[in-house]
Amino acid sequence: MKELVEIIAKSLVENPDKVVVTRKEEDRAIIIELKVAQSDMGKVIGKQGRIAKAIRSVVKAASTKETKRVLVDIVQDEG
After folding, report:
1. Which residues touch 6 (CB under 8 Å, ≥6 apart)?
2. What is the SS3 assignment for 26?
3. pLDDT digits over 21-79, tens only?
4. pTM, to two decimals
5. b/e per residue, 21-30, with b = 16+ CB within 10 A?
6. The sheet that has 29-36: what strands, in order across it?
7. CATH number of the domain that 11 lies in?
8. Which of 1, 9, 12, 38 minimizes the number of CB atoms within 10 Å of its CB?
């Protein structure tokens, strides 16, 4: 899942070297955290959150075999 989010994000942004994807596992969920440069936040979120919603939909479809829920969090990189 982590690799899927990374490939999608890197294809959308202008600074693919600043894309960082981390995976955190909790009791009932797997959280995929996506960090992008501040200038690329709009490209990853999209108008009215459409691109972010599409990324989450693709991950949800790809994670049907997982026993836990997979969530995608988009975080702004401080740097």
Report:
1. 19, 21
2. coil
3. 999 999 999 999 999 999 999 999 999 999 999 999 999 999 988 888 999 999 887 75
4. 0.89
5. beeeeeeeeb
6. 20-25, 29-36, 69-76
7. 3.30.300.20
8. 38
Q: Is 36 exposed, middle or buried (CB count within 10 Å of its CB: 0-12, 13-18, 19+)?
A: buried
Rounded Cα gap, residues 36 and 59, in angstroms = 18
Which residue range(s) make up the domain with 44? 2-76
Greatest alpha-carbon span in the chain: 35
Residue for token digits 């829920």? Answer: 69
Amino acid at 38: Q
- What's the number of domains the chain is made of? 1
- Residue 44's closest CA among 53, 27, 78? 53
Strand, coil or helix: what is 18? helix
